[in-house]
């Protein structure tokens, strides 16, 4: 397993984002309220998660919609078995 994936998952807020995305895709604008932090903080966390390949995004008008990537889904499934 790549160390960037482990580093990306070594933060409580990022784990919260991943847990929420496991339920389905979410607009970045809704994540701050869902995980209890600010929009700038969520943006930084999403960048780390995206750079590690755990999440993916698509544009819908002016909104950014995030979801787990196939890699992210596999990693979360493997981790949940521990």
Characterize this entry briefly.
With 82 residues, this protein is α+β, with helices and mostly antiparallel strands.
At the fold tier of CATH, the topology name is Arc Repressor Mutant, subunit A
- Count of all domains: 1
Task: Tell me the major beta sheet.
Answer: 3 strands, antiparallel
What's the total helix number?
5
Mean pLDDT across all amino acids: 94
Report the count of strand segments. 3
How much of the residues is beta strand, in percent? 15-25%
CATH structural architecture: Orthogonal Bundle
Low-confidence stretches: none
Helix content: 55-70%
- Global morphology: globular
Evaluate the radius of gyration: 12 Å
End-to-end Cα distance, whole Å, is: 15 Å
- Class by SSE composition: alpha+beta
For this structure, the quaternary state is: single chain
In spatial order, strands of the major sheet run 1-3-2
Q: What is the CATH superfamily?
A: Winged helix-like DNA-binding domain superfamily/Winged helix DNA-binding domain
Q: What's the helix-strand series?
A: HHEHHEEH
